[in-house]
Design a protein that fits this description.
With about 150 residues, this protein is mostly helical. It is about 40% helix and about 5% strand. The protein has a three-stranded antiparallel sheet, with helices on one face. It is elongated and about 80 Å long.
Amino acid sequence: MTNRIKDKRGFTLIEILVVVAIIAILAALVGPRIIGTTDEAKVTEAKVQIKNLETALKLFKLRQGFYPSTEQGLEALVTKPTIGRIPENYREGGYLESSSVPKDPWNNDFIYISPGLHGDYDLISYGADGVAGGEGFDADIESWDIR
């Protein structure tokens, strides 16, 4: 019975410190990579949202024969416009799954211009900084530049 008690000893302080040091080294190596992917994920999400808005705009045009004007904005995808050219065959419930126009991943409104400088319309997210221009994650995400 005394042999069993001796076999059940715990970890020494040195063993615990070595494990903590290994975990700290792994966190230092992996942490920055995980943090960086958050910004990359937001850029990807903004591109997906722009593509979804483009699909809704195309459905609007297919049914109405025209795109909403800049003044009508993306709000025309969820609520029948009351200004400008009024759609005659407006789809009940709008053209988006939600009852509101989504904001970009940084909680800013998408910029919608119709007619656009690069096509029938331009859709833009100003990126992480929320202002035109910028580099890296602050760069604008533009509908005509998404592949």
